[in-house]
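ASSEMBLY PREDICTION REQUEST
Request ID: AP-0331
Submitted by: J.K., bench scientist
Number of chains: three
Total residues: 1011
Priority: normal
Notes: Please return the full assembly, not individual chains.
Input sequences:
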Amino acid sequence: MQTFHAEPSRRSFLAGLSALAAGGLLAGCGGSGNQAGGKNGLTFLNWQQVKGTPLEQAIQAHEKAAGTSVTVQPAVTQEYDTKMRTLLAGGSPPDVMRINDDFVRGFSEQGALLDLKPFIEKDQLDTSQFAKEVFEFPKQPDGSHTAWVVGYEPRLVFYNVDLFKQAGVPLPPTTWTGTGWTWDAFTDRARKLTIPGKRWGALVYLDTGYEQTFTVNHGSETGIFSPDGTQFTLAGGKEVEALQWATDLTCKDKVQPPWSMLQQDNAETQLFAQGKLAMMYATFGTVPYLRSTIKDFTWDVAPPPADVEQKTESSVIVFCIPKEAKNPDQAWALLKYLSSEEGGKILLQGGAFTPINNKAAAGLAPNGKMPQHIGLFGEASKHLTATNQTKNTLGARELYRPALDQAYNCEKPVGDVLQQIKPQVDTALKG
Amino acid sequence: MATMTMTRGRTVAVTEARRARRKQNLVGWLFISPVVVGVVVFQFFPILVSMGASLTSWNGISAPKFVGLRNFKDLFSNDPLFRQTFKNTIYFTVASIPLTIGIGLVLALLCARPVKGVAFFRTAYFAPYVTNVVAIGFVWFWFFQPDNGVINGLLSQLGITGPQWLSSSSWAMPAVILVSVWQGIGYPMIILLAGLQGLPEEYFESARIDGAGAWARLRYITLPLLTPHFLFLLITQFITSFQVFGLIYVMTKGGPGHATSVYIFNIYQNAFGFGKVGYASAMAWILFAVIAAVTFLQWKLQKRWVFYS
Amino acid sequence: MRFASRTSQYVVMVLFAAAFLAPLVWMVSASLRPEAQVLSVPPKFLPTDPQWSNYRQVFELIPVFLWNSVKLAGLNVVGILIVASMAGYAFARLKFAGRDIAFMVLLATSIIPGIAYLIPQYIVFRHIGWVDTQYPLWVPKVLTPVFATFLMRQSFLTIPKELEDAGKIDGASTFGIYWRIMLPQTKPALAAIGVFTFLESWNDLFGPLIYINSENLQTLPVALAQFQGEYFTQISLLMCGATVSVVPVIAVFLFAQRYFIQGITMTGMKG
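STATUS: Completed
Returned structure:
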């Protein structure tokens, strides 16, 4: 019969447990996080990897010039919204934070962002050196300037030069004033470039920027929403026509890949890179990926086809200084540098966006890499249109975009779908 | 004299019993003390705040504004997405749980036999469960392509034209359920395997002596003895199926239309996308009420079918 | 007769294995393709031009992250095994006031979706000074292992009472019974919990993402998620990262398998 040594075993167990706890606390002691900041430092958060990009180089250049140290925190694109909102709500945000342009209005109204106007005025910063429309984007109705645009990514039509040449189809124009680049001409060229089952001629409707661009180009005064953001104008006559034209590229003309094929990240860029898509409406941000992936054909960019207008929409690269930031002055210094001519020249090298500084933007050149006409991304600043936004337009968007799936899948006409969803969207816009 | 001793004896007995019970309580609570500390420190306060938040309109940053039950009213009367995502989630849960547990049981039984190379098979069935959800979403998205995908390719070999899968509002959810079941089977399989290992030898010996065949042993001994594990699986799978959206989101982003949008994604989007933290909290509490009710029901019903030795 | 059933069993198992492994085989082959050909149509299963450089790129990223992931997984596994088995035993076999209510409350905490109280919880951590440390990634999990406790409870309930009674007769303390008699009987459940805890900690993306700001504390999933950018995803690298990430978990699983093999003849499934 065994005797169980009750007392010692409990003691030794408790001893073991406390050893574990102590060991765990020591091991898990990760408090040495380099949350520097301090007197001459600041923390920086982007939603994409900064390492190895021109942004990193620009930051390092600033560190040297200003004698500060910038700690870049790692972040992940997919969960960025969660992290950002948690950091802002939790009260310990980094000093400079990337912010989704969709959220600038909302966060400003909630008082989460620092007004930069005092900084601009104190330093007597000459704002005419910046591309006006995009620079003014973070300006709030009350005159405050709550975020900072460092660059912008216009959208253009990417096209496969070799495919055009092979099919004997005239190339798209290389300047913004080229004539003959009408919507009909676009569709016509797409038809000539399409080989059923093997190759598509064009892709327009996947990039959501097309909604504003193509409706405005077709003659809409407002695009998706009215200027005060209270009305859903996308359901109007001209707007519906424009959207239907883009949808018919799939449903009627059969020159555009079906919606189902495109519902995964990268599906469209993969198609383009494999030479299975001749034209694609996409943003400047796609350039680095195409440069590293495409090895066996020539590609270039062209303005969007012109109808009544020939504008394009641009995404903006926006950073903000949270109100609770611990080092706002150093943060401002960094932002100022990034939008300066010197900073802009460094950022230019990435070939991913147009620097906000016009002088720097003028330096957009191919430098031996594709696309040959990269300068168009700079010229685009003169042909921009932007969606009218309020804090409620985000919610409204989440209602009408999924509804459009039915139209894009060729199940219903665009007009029917939008008319049906309009009441809900209007309610959402009222907040 | 005798009476007094008797009374004193009884009093002593009662005090001793009380002391023993107190010691029992102490020991019990000691054993669960880490868990108590954990819940009180890390969950009690945040959950209370969240309960309060559901009665406000709050964006997480500026001060919350008390709105009473308006969030709940809006959810039930003004929010079609709320109803749709709730329906979708029920569909998903009801379809995937029986499949996951059922096939998991079959695989566990197969892998419990001393077949050669069983370790390989066990690993093969478990592998999807441990793989990164985003990668899996990508792979299956590609497999489900209507025109060039593997699935429709296989179906056409059998003379069937496959549907549009992820872009069809009626087939997207079944596709997502299939992938989710494929990925999730590893969990019940392992739990049931562990359960099978723990079954006492004696019952099987006596059954074999009595001449019971394999099927009979399965039906009358193995399965009843596994019922505690089945209860565990039913309750936990029900809870988790309401909280998982990663895989679905990667494959369909909730589409087409809102055919595969699930409840938890709606909560997430409202809280962190639109900044309607109060509204999202209200949604979370409705979810809690539903799951708690079902779990409670399952718990109470266990007397009828769960067998503890 | 037996041969036929044995072969048919094999056939079924092989078919299942094919269904389970096919997508993963594609994933590994995608990890070796040049980016332009990853989503090629029709889908190919064997890479024609293996890009081992993809793996080099991934490995260059990971040393510190790998160590952090391993450390956290270890802390989680050891901690949860101890806490959950103790609590599970108490809920299964000990009688004490408020036992069932406590268990219900514990279960209830797992029903509320974590994101509903993420912000208040973050504020709690900030007040304790745990933001940008690794503590939020193991201490709360170790102290609130709901499902693990539940599973241990169910496992303890299946152990015949006679074993426990024998221990009581021998004069063992409650702890002694737990540690010497009951716990060894639940090795399969412990192995299962070990595997799942390791897995959950290993693949946890959300926790490190929200709570950790410094690169030297970051874990593997966050590092690998960098391949998904704003406009495009480097698919081949993503698949590569996923493959690399799977290997340690499979290793842990293979190690834990011996606890599933124990007593394999006891199930009476032979023949």
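REVIEWER COMMENTS: Chain B touches chain A through 34 residues (CB under 8 Å).
SIGN-OFF: pending second reviewer
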